[in-house]
Design brief:
7-stranded mixed beta sheet, 11 strands
Length: 573
């Protein structure tokens, strides 16, 4: 199969359209299908051509229109921008500029368009983490109504929304779909399968800790494994250099906030039971009432952002960063830390995004076998001592197409055509082989991924298992993601640097969040679904109520527990 990121054929097609006088439509489409897609699709060739014919016909009124869309820079979006955008332009005559920028910059551009009403981009790929923002502010076109109304004539008959595995993440409490997923990845536990199965390592671990080396079920076991491997001599396995039992990052940067809001707090057990997010208290520690109105973030108002479970979560992260992690990691961001495990000296990472899979299975890496299978595996992340059955156990990123109401209708229609092209069944299997960020059930089940599964370290097994629904993005408790997200990295950064204790940093964080909630409540911009803060009460009142926030445990060390990876995979199947 051709998994190259830059398709010379697709790029050549785009150049031909840019320089040539004739617009060929289906001729260009067939050339694209021949050169780029082949049998890497869940559709037959006839069905592929039918989808392409729709795009040719539906795009006719928009030919020669120039539109701009934007996304963060990950492999999947590079493929969209460098291969699929030129192909779409060649096939439809709509000239697409697909900008690739940092995730924080995407949110900033979107926020600017929300505040100014100026049309900066015709389409945004932004995380479904903003679903609470979009639902409350009503500044994006909800796709449920769009498809029935102004977008009806440009909606692909075979779009098949039910085939999208992350649609629940982009659906508001009103039942409307606000965004269309175009890539999706989870944060999972990553570990060196070969090191864990080495007989000497197993025997030494058993002798030291009294239980079997395996996938850690809880943080106590993760900590033991981190201690065991840090500084361990693995020369008997041909491993050179210093070995570490943990990988993380700690720079005061926007990505530091994602690490905590995405799942670290939920894995620790801070929030309430519930899928896809804890209710009434979520993994941000924000509490809502029965009308989905945010009522507080601090324990005094029934929130959990500064609760004992949150303090435990931050304390453990700092401790492991200092004791078991490469020293340089404290000054790294998310994107800088991501490739480090592939260099071959990391035993495990609790919080590893599957978006890095494509870059971690490249031939010749120290973590790859000569036969193309990985020396590593991925598995569910362990959970902390406050965690209870039914609570959120991990995060999934669902980068999703978002159409702003401030975008003129015709430009939004053209952008919607492009959005559907890059998520269509025609191209999705091939796109998923490049970026490994699944969005469609039909793609997850495609035979080509059955054939490739043993090369991907458990990714396919995870996405074919019931476990995938327990991993979710930020939910609807967060009323203004752009405003609140920046508070996390700024305050947590103070704890990571030692400027404040974890408790002091989290007290400041929850107070900052409540100031934003208070401003939104006073402004009334979100109507009767906006914040409505509880009165402050003694913490003991809230600890006595069912669910989060939870009182401090007398003992935050639980009995360590591990499980065999092979047994775990068998249970998924």
């Amino acid at each position: 199969m051709n998994l190259s990121l830059k398709s010379t054929t697709a790029l050549a097609l785009a150049l031909a359209v840019a320089s040539g006088p004739a617009f060929a439509g289906m001729d260009e489409a067939r050339a694209f299908l021949d050169a780029e897609i082949g049998d890497m699709s869940s559709l037959t060739r006839a069905e592929q051509e039918a989808e392409m014919q729709f795009f040719v016909d539906a795009a006719a009124p928009y030919q020669d229109m120039e539109i701009k869309v934007v996304s963060e820079t990950i492999t999947t979006h590079e493929y969209e921008a460098q291969v699929l955008a030129p192909a779409f332009t060649a096939i439809t005559g709509i000239k697409v500029t697909h900008d690739l920028i940092g995730e924080g910059d995407v949110v900033e551009k979107l926020q600017t368009q929300m505040q100014s009403g100026e049309n900066i981009y015709d389409g945004y790929i932004n995380d479904s983490d903003l679903i609470g923002t979009h639902w409350r502010y009503q500044q994006v076109r909800n796709l449920t109504d769009w498809i029935e109304g102004e977008g009806a004539g440009v909606t692909l008959p075979t779009l098949d929304l039910d085939d999208f595995i992350g649609l629940s993440f982009t659906t508001g409490p009103d039942g409307k779909v606000y965004q269309l997923p175009t890539q999706q990845f989870a944060n999972l536990y990553w570990f060196r399968y070969d090191w864990f199965n080495d007989e000497k390592n197993k025997a030494d671990f058993q002798e030291k800790y009294g239980y079997e080396l395996g996938v850690p079920v809880n943080w106590s076991a993760y900590e033991d494994i981190a201690e065991f491997f840090t500084g361990r001599d693995l020369s008997h396995m041909g491993v050179d250099g210093e070995v570490f039992g943990n990988m993380d990052y700690g720079k005061k940067d926007p990505s530091l906030g994602w690490r905590y809001t995405d799942a670290w707090m939920s894995m620790a057990g801070m929030g309430d039971v519930g899928e896809p997010n804890g209710l009434p208290v979520d993994e941000w520690g924000i509490r809502v009432n029965e009308n989905s109105q945010p009522t507080g973030s601090c324990v005094a108002r029934g929130g959990a952002t500064n609760a004992p479970a949150a303090v435990y979560a931050v304390t453990k992260a700092i401790e492991w960063l200092e004791k078991y992690t490469p020293p340089a990691a404290a000054g790294m961001t998310f994107s800088e830390a991501g490739p480090i495990p592939a260099q071959g000296n990391i035993a495990q990472q609790m919080f590893w995004y599957t978006a890095f899979t494509a870059d971690t299975v490249k031939p010749g890496l120290p973590v790859m076998n000569e036969d193309g299978t990985p020396k590593w595996r991925m598995a569910p992340s362990p959970h902390g001592v406050y965690w209870k059955e039914g609570q959120k156990v991990g995060y999934q990123d669902a980068g999703s197409w978002t159409l702003m109401k401030s975008t003129p209708v015709d430009r939004a229609q053209a952008a919607w055509l492009y959005a559907q092209f890059v998520t269509s069944k025609t191209v999705d299997v091939k796109k998923s082989h490049v970026g490994l960020t699944f969005i469609r059930e039909s793609t997850v089940q495609h035979d080509s991924f059955t054939e490739r599964a043993d090369k991907l370290g458990g990714l396919v097994e995870f996405y074919r298992s019931p476990a995938r629904v327990q991993w979710s993005p930020t939910g609807t408790n967060v009323p203004d993601y752009p405003k609140l997200a920046q508070l996390w990295w700024q305050n947590i950064g103070d704890a990571m640097s030692g400027a404040k204790t974890p408790q002091e940093a989290l007290d400041a964080l929850c107070a900052d969040q409540e100031r934003v909630l208070e401003r939104l409540e006073r402004a009334g911009v979100q109507g009767d679904i906006g914040p409505k803060l509880n009165d402050e009460m003694d913490a003991e009142h809230w600890f006595a109520q069912p669910g989060a926030p939870y009182a401090k445990l007398d003992n935050e060390d639980e009995e360590p527990k591990t499980v065999s990876y092979d047994e775990l995979i068998a249970s998924w199947q």
